[in-house]
Every structure is written in structure tokens, then in C-alpha cells.
Amino acid sequence: MIWQDYQLGDTVSKVAEAVTLWQTERGIIVISEDTLAVPIKLDDRERGYVFHGHGRLLLDTIVETEKGAIGRPVEKGLNEPFLMLGDTEEKQKYLTEASEEDFAKMGYENQQEFVAEAKELFDRFFQKEGIHRTRTSRKHFGVIFAFQNPSKKLDILVARGSKLVYKAIDLVFVSNEDKVVLKSPSEVVCASNRKSVVIKK
Asked: How many domains is the chain partitioned into structurally?
């Protein structure tokens, strides 16, 4: 299958209570009650969402080396629309019907305005970011998040089991069990089995 098979739905819901979208030893993504959600569908089944509400991303991107810890954790407020692809079955039970009041809380006049905003993000992820050229199987990629950043680009987080990739404006972090790569504006760090290499830029 290809990414172009995905379609944005037009039925908007909201989460009835705070929901943890993803959590491992490396991080957590949580959204608050009343966050709006429009489904992303594949073969008429929900395979993801565009969310807009309030939430938080916490990610441990610190690398332990022989000379001490390098890097700092990522802490990001999720107050702009963002996209999630992955298993939605557990999330669906938290969804309920959204009202006009719910749209107003997030600055929208109506449902159509929110769906239009979600469609813009959907298109950026699947087209402008070049994602549509990637072939995949939904059972292989785990979960994918795309967050908007001030430079009008998308920060991407991909996680599956112990494997994690996070790409932001000034940071690339790759982790798989005890193997870690961190690339920042000032250095590149590779660590494995308590051994590490640090390259200063």
C-alpha cells in the first residue's frame, strides 16, 4: 500500500477525558479533555487522527557517555493541530461527539473550519514532506506523530517497540534499546553498550 491511500474523514469528535497517546521509557504524549479529533482513514477504517487541543510531549533525548550526560530532554506543549498515525482501537473508546462550543474553545467558528485546518496539515504530511513516496505496511511502522513547529516544518516522531526516531528543527535522536544516536547543532553522539563517540562540530 502507499501513503496516498489514506484519506481525511469529515466527522469530528472530542476526547472525553485526558488520554495518553503513546508512552515508553523514553517518553510520553498526553492530550487533555475536549481535544478535537478528525479521523484519518484507510479502507474506511480509522488509522489515525488530526488532533487539536492541549497536550504535552516529553521525550528523554539525553545520552549517557563515559564523560557524563549529553543533551537535554524535549518538552513540547501541544497547542497546535498535530497528526498521529497508528493503532486507534484503544483511543476510539475515549471519543465523543463534539459541539459548536467545543469548536469555539479552540478558536473555530464551526466544524468545517477545523476540518479545513486539519486538511492543510494532512496534506503537508502526506505531500509536501515527501511522505507520499514511502511505501509501508501499517503493522510495520508502529506509531507516527507529526508536530508543527515555528519554522512551518514538521517535527516527526516514529516509534515501534524499543525503536524510536525523533527529527526536529535542530535535533535528530535515534534510539534502539541501548544504542543511541544524537545529532544537535553542536555535536554528534553515538553510544552503544556504555561506549560512546562524541564529535564536536
From this structure: 1
Could you read off the pLDDT of 63-94 as tens digits, one per residue? 988 888 999 999 999 999 999 999 888 899 99
Give alpha helix (H) positions in 87-155. Answer: 89-92, 100-105, 111-123, 138-141
Largest interatomic CA distance in the chain = 56
- Residue 73's domain comprises 3-170
Residue 182 belongs to a domain? no
CA distance linking residue 70 with residue 153, whole number of Å: 26
Residue 118 belongs to a domain? yes
Buried (b) or exposed (e) across 189-198, using 16+ Cβ within 10 A? bbbeeeebee
Cell triple for 143 = 506509531
Alpha-carbon distance of 19 to 8, in angstroms, equals: 21
CB 198 within 8 A of CB 70: yes
